[in-house]
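Here is the promised in-class demo. Please do not try to memorize the tokens; focus on the logic of going from shape to residues.
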């Protein structure tokens, strides 16, 4: 039935249906999303997380997409019990909103799409949020591991794929203080600072590869040695 639905309904219509479905569910569940940053209090840097932006023919387009998304993300503060939703805050990475084509992974195939590269931003937020114990209520790993040990810029299992209306990164503030994200892009590097109104412990997170064949399986463990996520990847063909 689901496959028939996909064949009969155009993608743009299915996307709109999913957007409204999520809006209704969020309303029914009483989800409180991160709000505009009007805090007149001091924020202190909790941690700074840095990643490489790998050289590619789409480097400038990827950085352009980063900056558009960052401009939205940096307008909000996550107060206690509020939810940071990547899709809710950033919106759709489409040409109409100024996004450019860059590399993206779709059904295990590398393609060029508008808004390509935003998954690295989402993964950066996901990885840093785990370190301060924020509650990750939705996160999806990529379907395929496209990197080797030599080309990998972040641990396997720390990624977060984004697909507007279908796959989101949602993080709930389960602390008693407020948080916000701040970014800086330099030559082939991007850094994320998580700032808070009160001190919060920063912990190590372990990404343990427990299986490599036929699929790669990674268990993500917090500082209590609890498994907080299981990521499964197909091999790149």
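The designed amino acids, position by position:
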């Amino acid at each position: 039935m689901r496959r028939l639905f996909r064949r009969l309904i155009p993608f743009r219509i299915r996307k709109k249906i999913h957007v409204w479905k999520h809006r209704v569910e969020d309303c029914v569940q009483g989800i409180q999303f991160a709000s505009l940053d009007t805090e007149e209090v001091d924020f202190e840097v909790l941690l700074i997380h840095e990643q490489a932006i790998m050289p590619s023919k789409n480097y400038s387009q990827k950085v352009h997409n980063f900056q558009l998304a960052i401009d939205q993300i940096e307008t909000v503060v996550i107060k206690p019990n509020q939810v940071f939703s990547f899709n809710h805050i950033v919106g759709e990475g489409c040409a109409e909103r100024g996004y450019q084509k860059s590399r993206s992974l779709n059904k295990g195939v590398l393609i060029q799409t508008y808004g390509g590269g935003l998954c690295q931003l989402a993964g950066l937020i996901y990885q840093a949020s785990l370190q301060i114990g924020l509650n990750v209520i939705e996160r999806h790993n990529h379907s395929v591991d496209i990197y080797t040990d030599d080309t990998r810029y972040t641990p396997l299992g720390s990624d977060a794929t984004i697909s507007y209306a279908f796959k989101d990164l949602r993080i709930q503030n389960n602390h008693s203080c407020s948080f916000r994200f701040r970014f800086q892009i330099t030559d082939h590097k991007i850094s994320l600072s998580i700032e808070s109104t009160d001190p919060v412990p920063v912990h190590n997170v372990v990404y343990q590869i427990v299986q490599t064949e036929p699929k790669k399986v990674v268990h993500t463990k917090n500082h209590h040695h609890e498994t907080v996520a299981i990521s499964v990847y197909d091999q790149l063909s």
